[in-house]
Design goal:
The chain is mainly alpha-helical and 79 residues long. The chain is built from 4 helices and no strands.
């Protein structure tokens, strides 16, 4: 049996995916951040940046901020 919270998360992700495929900047930003916060491998980060890039191209200021912060953190960690 799937736990109710997990089922809600899966349903929410499915709705976000449909909205993202339709070009909804907020949905693209949200999915990008979900992948970015997972930190379960390089492939997840690539997916995150792909979604955030699309959201940024659609004018999402939040996506621009998120991308800027993640690149700033990478730069700091390289020092």
């Amino acid at each position: 049996m799937i736990f109710p919270k997990l089922l809600q998360d899966v349903e929410a992700y499915n709705y976000l995916s449909v909205a993202a495929e339709s070009g909804h900047a907020g949905a693209l930003y949200t999915i990008g951040n979900l992948f970015l916060k997972k930190k379960s491998g390089e492939n997840q980060e690539e997916k995150a940046y792909k979604y955030l890039q699309k959201a940024m191209e659609l004018g999402s200021v939040a996506a621009i901020n998120s991308l800027g912060q993640s690149f700033f953190i990478i730069e700091i960690s390289l020092l």
